[in-house]
## 1
Amino acid sequence: MNTLKRIFCPTDFGTCAHAALQQALRLAEAHDARIDLAHVANVPRYSGRDVMGKLGNSGSKPLLELALAESNKQMDALMRELTLAERQRVTTHCLVGSPAAAIIEHARVRESDLIVLGASGTARLAKYVLGGVAQKTIRHAPCPVLCVPNAERVRAFRTILAATDFSECSMHAVHVASVLAASENAQLIVAHAAPTTWSLPPDLSVGASVAQGTHWLELLQREAREQLDEFVDQARVQGLVTHSKQLLMGSPAQALLQYARTHDVDLMVLGTHGRAPIARLMLGSVAETVVHNAEVPILTVRGPEPNPHSHPVPTPAHGPGV
């Protein structure tokens, strides 16, 4: 995402989708971008799109025609809520098909730079992101996906937290975060969570005795700090602007969430490993937990497609980082 010129915002016309649209409009204005606003009319295949149905006093019509008519009606009502300047940035689309597949295909055909999705349900991101539509969108989207929780106001991105597990995938995510931070005039913090005693036997030590030896935890945290320094240095060599780095302690997901809450983070950026299930975002349940519980928007960035002739990036040896 070197530029942000075309934003794709799917909507189901709910309150959470409204929050996503407001964020999409803010980004579009800040980046002079266009918005594709789309609703997917999904007529179940088992019923058949030619099956006749009724909508009010309109008489019997094919279900597909009824679904599209209702979609257009709601889209027109939504557009009337926007200002003239906002409407001039928006192109509306009423799509047909399986929602996730239609979203992914539309983003590919329109060469979207970003997909903005609204959270859903009382659990904010839980049901939506961990459900079928957003899960498939995050896994297969050809561009980064921004998941926006329902909120009373849209926040500008002044502080961005990018998590890293030191992989090529997370470097790609930091690259996207750096570009976004530069365009938003935001501070970019690169963070890694090192393990604490919750994951290690309390009496493990290296040396002749506990008194003389170095505690395993101390070694792991020292290694994590060195790797974080090296990772950020590598990012800067690549021309990426990072303003600070944070070595967090504890359960990676909870450490990230706690840091975001206590430091007024406006956006969190996580890398995703290709087309693997959402359970393998970054190092598994870490990202799943973060997305499930975050109170701020989450930008997920798929890593570059692996080169079959290249060697895999080694995974850090010190346990569950981020």
## 2
Amino acid sequence: MLKKIKADLHIHSCLSPCSDWDMSPKKIVQKSLEQQLDLIAICDHNTAENVAAIMREGARQGIAVLPGMEICSREEVHLVTLFKSIEADLKMQEFIYKHLNGNNQPEVFGHQVVADEHDQVLGENPRLLIGATGLSLIDVVEKAHHLGGICISSHVDRPSYSLIGQLGFIPENLHLDAVEVSFRVPLKKARTEVPGIGNYPCVTSSDAHFLDDIGKVWTEFILAAPSLEELIMALAGKDGRHIVN
């Protein structure tokens, strides 16, 4: 049976150096429930070390959590990758870490807190998560697909760290599954206001780095269940699954 699913598919945790400590596993789930979200995705910068904890807390409190990551390519373009399982997400993380150089400077870029589902601090990630990887856009998309995931171009309406902002266009050989617009552009107007995205499924997400931003915008889907398999069908418009707004 198909139903409407309210989803925010781009949320950062306290592991992202530009996020607040309040973006802890327990608080993210609690705020998502307050916002009446059915499905969220955790997409920290170049890492997935907090995803499993948030998935466990989401399962405990009754909200679906997709494992993901926001990856910065060597072109300094941000891409959201989403996966069916935490195992696939961690394989992507292993691949990313091999192509991510530098060490974090907390006093400059912010702390990168690893936490469990009880909001207990387990440590800090020492890598320069805010940096660009040595991977091309095509490298990232192809690896995500190889692991059974999907790849969405982040906040394409923004001038910085977006595909259109950095390159000015979407390469024809870049096989994206969708594009994301920020809260700055209403989803219904995105195709007419953002050049070059007309041929792609379009979603909107909060890109939340602070609790009050979770669910600031969202995408409604018609799905049978809040899962990546169903999401893939909706992006393709298959078997009645589709994007509502």
## 3
Amino acid sequence: MKTVSVYAPASMGNVSVGFDLLGAALEPIVEGEQHDELPFGDVVTVTALAATEATAATEVPLHLSCSGAYARFLPATGNIVTRCAQEFIRRYAPECQGLQLTLQKNLPIGSGLGSSASSVVAALAALNRYFGQPLNHAQLLQLMGELEGQISGSVHFDNVAPSFLGGMQLMLADDAQALPSFDNWYWLVAYPGITLSTAKMRALLPSEVPLATTIRYGQQLASFVAASYRGDEAQALAALNDVLAEPHRAAHIPGYQAAKTKLKGLGFEAVGISGSGPTLFAVCRDKAVAEQGRQYLQHHYLTNQYGLVRLCRLAQHGVQYKESQHDAVNQS
């Protein structure tokens, strides 16, 4: 029986400087015995239903089972993985007789770590591979943005693109462009353990932005992109400043402003909100500083047992596939 499993990494949307236009995939830096911190992304597995279950149904049966550290927080009905399968089958696999779907939910919901995007990316990439890849990368990315938008409240690609493709991704009109990244940067992310609705956090933003703010936003993003291509770390780090969304969201994330002040004092060169929060990210180039920040956030930013702190690098690969007939992992 054919089985396809796909892992889709966590991601940061906006990356402070690129609201809805910039995103980055994350992978934890694993040292010693830290293997309990992995995986840092959701896994979706697709296989056929048993013949007796499939042929007895009047509609295409889709059976979903969920596991993982954050599975208990999933809604009882209307899971996005099932919705992805329903839409994919309707459009591209009407001959399907039924599927068994499994979601390993490793990312907290409403965290600012691209949780819904990870599930969507893993599900659609697995379905596309299972059904013989009827969609190319560009088509698949468009579908991922569409389905993820059903949860977040609007279609944007700054989480699905990096989770799917890896690295730092700049959103274009109808595609995504990988940006050069800095391998020596430490990306520290901390989720306090509380949930914030992406749709509600977006509602905090004004419907109109002053011209001066718009110009400043464009300058910051252009400066970061140019510095990335030139390899100018100092300018890239200086540009990681959110003038568009953070001023309206920071006060609504408990402990964020105090943590940002402390991390800056420790020597982190940039601190910002991951996506719409409440996860924060902080960047430095010194491992000792990174470890100090990790310890501080572990003791002062987390509010319960569901919170997490991860020291990461950018995940250069996006989705990872595992197929039963080959028993091997391919990276895309």
